[in-house]
Design a protein that fits this description.
This protein is mainly alpha-helical. The protein has 8 helices and 2 strands. It has one domain. A hairpin with a 2-residue loop joins β1 and β2. α1 crosses α3, α2 packs across α6 and α2 runs parallel beside α7.
């Protein structure tokens, strides 16, 4: 599936094209999450769910910024250039790249072009996105923040990863499951990721002034109701 943004004046679409890229990333990540969930790998799905959560919050902030969204989007683009420069320098240190002169020069050219675009469009300053915790509280994801923090621990290899995989059989015997069979865990991961995907979709529609055929909030409520019903059945 290819997403295309067309405008009459290409100059005006540069920063909005970045917003479209962020949305496209949420679509791809959510597809990968679905694949993992069908294989009963909710912990691994949450690895990706962290990125989905972050991007949804960023899109919410972009939508809220209205006409000032260029400050955020160009700020993100400027930081991305710095990160790519860091990657190239790391490749040189690791011996993966002998001559980085041309690549670094191209990135400096990109930064100058970005600055020129900023001046032409009257963008006075560049802004960074809110920290995840602050954004979660602002955009009604306080409940999801706990799952995000759990996923953070799992991604970085703490014992939290094994919380739903390890079973103590006896004093000296512990089993580790290669698949998570607890439906509550699988559904909880699914609900977390669905909420983020729907939030990202709704925010993207607001950014581009699109009318959605269905309200994502309705689906989110249905998912949460089903989650509560599943938990009550298994209690």
């Amino acid at each position: 599936m290819r997403q295309v943004l067309r405008t009459v004046a290409p100059e005006q679409s540069t920063h909005d094209a970045i917003a479209l890229q962020l949305h496209a990333r949420t679509v791809r990540v959510f597809e990968a999450v679905c694949i993992l969930l069908t294989q009963n790998l909710p912990e691994e799905a949450l690895f990706l769910g962290r990125s989905l959560f972050e991007d949804a919050l960023r899109l919410e902030e972009i939508a809220e910024s209205g006409d000032a969204r260029a400050e955020l989007l160009l700020g993100w683009a400027n930081d991305s250039i710095s990160e790519k420069i860091g990657l190239i320098r790391a490749a040189v240190v690791a011996g993966l790249e002998r001559d980085s002169t041309t690549m670094l020069a191209n990135l400096e050219r990109d930064r100058k072009q970005l600055s020129a675009y900023q001046r032409r469009n009257g963008v006075d300053r560049l802004r960074r996105f809110r920290q995840v915790r602050d954004a979660a509280l602002r955009y009604d994801r306080a409940h999801g923040l706990w799952t995000y923090l759990l996923a953070y621990e799992a991604v970085h290899g703490s014992d939290a990863y094994f919380a739903f995989l390890r079973t103590k059989q006896s004093v000296d015997t512990i089993t580790l499951d290669m698949r998570t069979t607890d439906s509550d865990v699988v559904f909880g991961a699914a609900a977390f990721c669905i909420r983020s995907a729907m939030q990202a979709t709704k925010a993207t529609a607001a950014i581009f002034g699109l009318q959605l055929a269905e309200d994502p909030d309705v689906l989110c409520r249905e998912v949460m109701e089903l989650e509560l019903a599943t938990a009550a059945t298994n209690a």
